[in-house]
Here is the input.
Amino acid sequence: MFISFDAIAVSGITVEATKLACYLNNRGFESFIDLGYDIKIDKGNFAKPYSCYEKSIFDKHFKLVRINDIYLLKNYTVEFINKVNNILINGTTKANLIEKNNLLEQVNIVANALSELIFNTWNKLEITHLVIENGTLPENIIYALYKSIEKYGLQKNLACFVLWRDHDLMWNSETLSKNMVKSLGIMQ
Here is the structure.
């Protein structure tokens, strides 16, 4: 199963995922993809159903999936995710310690419930491997991916079943490496 954190249908991320899915499909694996519409909120696709367009793009290589009943979770909304991000992550909204602790309690409640939904979806699909594409989690700390991975891996006795491909980190690392090489006088 592929999980994209890009939250758009067509991107370099989904193209790379498709290449890998083709390879896996030719070896007998069934591939699923969650486009991340319910993870990232800045692309305007949060809670947007997959259309015929998305289905037509991916139908040959993937089965499009979403986390079932995610919208039934109290507080898993754009407003709540923004509030959490603004107070706890980037600090643009000021809050006192009591308010932050109360917000963290709410985050844990929603994250635990969401983790259970993720686990149930993976279990139903009988997932054996996960490929997380561009997975920068601090943008949405409520999305309980780490909890789900740990629980699912332990219960299914899967050791290394997650490939985490964070392209943002890759590009940052590449730039850093080039700058280091240049500063050492190795490169002209």
